[in-house]
Automatic annotation (TrEMBL), chain A:
A UniProt-annotated Pfam family: Rhodanese
Annotated transmembrane regions: none
Keywords noted in UniProt: Repeat, Transferase
Reaction equations catalysed: thiosulfate + hydrogen cyanide = thiocyanate + sulfite + 2 H(+)
Protein name: Sulfurtransferase
Source taxon at top rank: Bacteria
InterPro entries tied to this protein: Rhodanese-like_dom, Rhodanese-like_dom_sf, Thiosulfate_sulfurtransferase, Thiosulphate_STrfase_CS
Keyword presence, Kinase: no
Residues annotated as domain Rhodanese: 18-125, 160-274
From TrEMBL, chain B:
InterPro entries reported for this sequence: DUF1416
Organism: Nocardioides jiangsuensis
Name by which UniProt lists this protein: DUF1416 domain-containing protein
Length: 282, 98
């Protein structure tokens, strides 16, 4: 993977608006954003209902994901281009999710919905209809998904990258500051995790910084490029953004996203937790 | 929107006593701007959160006590920075003119 194959800009999208093999998919934290206007021809995926099991805490399974994409009119050989609000947090999460289920050709729109809006490009409220397909998802690729036991085992061994804001890392906030803070778990971070807020990888308009800038940011934060890496945040969406940077833009091997993230880790009994701005000891 | 309270969306259901709320409105020529983005930067200038404004131009953050910077981005406007102090149990109101 590389920047050229994983990322497209707004001009590329504008040129492919009528290409039937290119499927634009909007995924937002605010799941009502699409309904107030979206890029022409884009379909919507709702991360809370379409991508999450509605009973236990997990993703929809392979058959459910296959049924979802079949119903929305996505084929296995389509080019899926994801975009969304919040600097592409949830679009990056969906990108990772499509990769988890083995979709070949997935791309992210650089800057997402914000850049598109700030550039005064057109949004429409017209409904998108695509003919149903027969989509077949692959088995989950666990080489890009980390589970809690391997996260605990990675303390002091692998790169752990905490991509939340500095105040969440230190334990001064429990959630991003646009959300109410009251929650049950302990605050803090996984000992030895480097603090590299996801936002360091993005410009103000939501586009990604250059490869050279990105390399420098993670190197200076102490990421050892010879080690495997696990990224985490609160619920796994911002860390998808960083996973995208490390794996897809910089081509780093063996990068996993820990989707359980702090809401799981910070509720585990008996695991070590570090408080404050320092990394803490293994 | 008719009857919008100062700060916009109702705080009903939020325990304000435990929160350090920063909220306000973005305006251009005294009219609310519904397609702006407000970024919350911490005391070191590090990004902490971002919200799009509502149709009534309103935004809100649940911060922690201390000094913060609001950076507002909008189409066809230069970014505008405003500093604000948040306190637990109170609501800091900010009007950003672009």
């Amino acid at each position: 993977m590389s920047r050229e194959s994983a990322l497209v800009d707004a001009d590329w999208v504008a040129e492919h608006l009528d290409d039937p093999k290119v499927v634009l998919v909007e995924v937002d934290e605010d799941t009502s954003a699409y309904d107030k206007g979206h890029i022409k021809g884009a379909i919507k995926l709702d991360w809370t209902t379409d991508l999450q099991d509605q009973v236990r805490r997990d993703f929809v399974n392979k058959d459910q994901f296959s049924a979802l994409l079949s119903e929305r009119g996505v084929s296995n050989d389509d080019t899926v281009v994801l975009y969304g609000g919040n600097n592409n947090w949830f679009a990056a999460y969906a990108y990772w999710y499509f990769k988890l289920y083995g979709h070949e050709d997935v791309k992210l729109l650089d800057g997402g919905r914000k850049k598109w809006e700030l550039d005064s490009r057109e949004l429409t409220e017209d409904a998108t209809t695509r003919e149903a397909t027969t989509y077949t998802a692959k088995e989950q690729d666990h080489s890009i998904r980390a589970f809690r036991d391997e996260v605990v085992a990675a303390i002091g061994v692998q790169n752990l990258v905490d991509v939340r804001s500095p105040d969440e890392y230190a334990g001064r906030l429990m959630a991003p500051a646009h959300l109410p803070q009251e929650q049950a778990q302990r605050a803090g971070h996984i000992p030895t995790a480097a603090s590299v807020p996801w936002s360091k990888a993005a410009n103000d308009d939501g586009t990604f910084k250059s490869d050279d800038e990105l390399q420098k940011i993670y190197s200076e934060a102490g990421v050892d490029w010879n080690k495997d890496t696990i990224a985490y945040c609160r619920i796994g969406e911002r860390s998808s953004h960083t996973w995208f940077v490390l794996k897809e833009l910089l081509g780093q091997q063996n990068v996993k996203n820990y989707d359980g993230s702090w809401t799981e880790y910070g509720s585990l009994v008996g695991v070590p937790v570090a408080l404050g701005d320092e990394r803490g000891e293994a | 929107m008719c009857g919008a309270t100062t700060g916009g969306v109702s705080l009903e259901g939020v325990n304000v006593a435990k929160e350090s709320v920063i909220q306000g409105i973005v305006t251009r020529d005294d009219e609310p701007v519904g397609n702006a983005y407000v970024r919350l930067l911490d005391r070191t200038g590090e990004f902490t959160a971002e919200v799009p404004t509502s149709v009534t131009g309103h935004f809100r953050f649940f911060a922690s006590p201390g000094e913060w910077t609001l950076r507002t981005l909008a189409p066809k406007a230069d970014p505008v920075d405003r500093t604000v102090v948040a306190q637990q149990g109170s609501v800091a109101e900010v009007t950003v003119a672009i």
